[in-house]
Design goal:
The structure holds 2 protein chains of 2 kinds. Chain A is an alpha+beta fold. Chain A has 4 helices and 3 strands. Chain A has one domain: Arc Repressor Mutant, subunit A, CATH 1.10.10. Chain A has a 3-stranded antiparallel sheet with strand order 1-3-2. By secondary structure, chain B is mainly alpha-helical. Chain B folds into 2 domains: 48 residues; 116 residues. Helix content of chain B is 77%, strand content 1%. Chain B starts with a helix and ends in a 5-residue tail after the last helix. The chains are: A alpha+beta, B mainly alpha. Chains A and B meet through helix 1, strand 1, helix 2 and helix 4 of A and helix 1 and strand 1 of B. Strand 1 of chain A pairs antiparallel with strand 1 of chain B, so a sheet runs across the interface. Chain A: This is MarR family transcriptional regulator. Chain A: It comes from Aliidiomarina haloalkalitolerans. Chain A: It holds the Pfam family HTH_34. Chain B: Keywords: Membrane, Transmembrane, Transmembrane helix.
């Protein structure tokens, strides 16, 4: 097994997003923002990185005012996150 | 003079080698610490999910009621039979839509121990449905209220056991 970290997932905010979405079927934008403690723009930027890599699935529902958006990890995203966790485990274990 | 110079070079090489070993060792230690910190962060986020999943108090009783309707629909004469099934299905769709429009939702069929519980509940539902149909066709009409109450109670138990199993899984130390 190789210990290759995924550069898309590795930054701390994206790692947290993946950790949250890996354990939920869908999570709304506002809850992700509150859980990460970042601004809307910072979260949007991080989500765009993940979306561009094909790691996210987005569901938008029209609502009064801004449309509400739910995010989930795509199959590729789940697979990449699992590989990233495996790599972290290997690094943590190898160096002991 | 040359001998002194050679000894000095050897000392330098030894010092560099020691320094490289120290650097490599500290790099490895830093990588390890970063990996452990990242894994702890993932664990922390996994645990934090629990406080965000809110089920309204009425959800399990309504699901139990709708399932009871779907189990005993066959006992009603036509066209009430079809009306009961339609109300049961539409009710389920509305409850599910309400659930999936929360800020966070988790499927009952998600991977893990909870999936086994969901399969078990589905099998119990089918046993209730076909068991009550068969017994009712044999003239045992007592099965109608019994199966309705039974599936309602089992749905409440399933809801609570599912939630408790899921919480334990989220709060477990492994990161998945």
């Amino acid at each position: 097994m190789s210990a290759e970290l995924d550069p898309v997932i590795h930054p701390v905010h994206r790692l947290q997003i993946c950790a949250l979405l890996a354990n939920a079927d869908e999570m709304e934008f506002a809850l992700l923002r509150d859980e990460l403690g970042v601004s809307d723009s910072v979260l949007s930027k991080q989500l765009k990185y993940l979306d561009d890599a094909g790691y996210l699935t987005i569901r938008k529902v029209p609502s009064t005012g801004r449309p509400r958006s739910w995010y989930s990890l795509s199959k590729d995203g789940q697979c990449a996150f699992q590989k990233h966790l495996d790599a972290l485990r290997i690094i943590a274990a190898l160096a002991t | 003079m040359n001998q002194q110079s050679n000894q000095q070079n050897e000392r330098n090489a030894t010092d560099q080698s020691d320094s490289a070993t120290t650097n490599s060792s500290s790099d490895l230690q830093a990588q390890r610490e970063a990996a452990v910190a990242a894994l702890n962060l993932v664990k922390e986020k996994k645990k934090s999910i629990v406080k965000h999943l809110h089920l309204p108090w009425w959800q399990d009783p309504v699901i139990g009621l709708l399932m009871a309707m779907l189990v005993i629909h066959h006992a009603a004469p036509m066209p009430y039979d079809i009306i009961i099934v339609a109300v049961g299905c539409i009710g389920m769709v509305l409850v599910l839509r309400h659930y999936t429009n929360q800020a966070l939702w988790v499927s009952g069929w998600r991977r893990g121990k909870t999936r086994k519980l969901s399969y078990a509940f589905f099998v119990i539902y089918l046993i209730h449905l076909f068991g009550s149909m068969w017994l009712n066709s044999q003239g045992h009409q007592w099965i109608i209220p019994v199966s309705a109450v039974s599936i309602f109670v089992i749905a409440q138990i399933y809801g609570r056991v599912w939630m408790s199993t899921w919480r334990k899984e989220m709060e477990a130390e492994d990161v998945g």
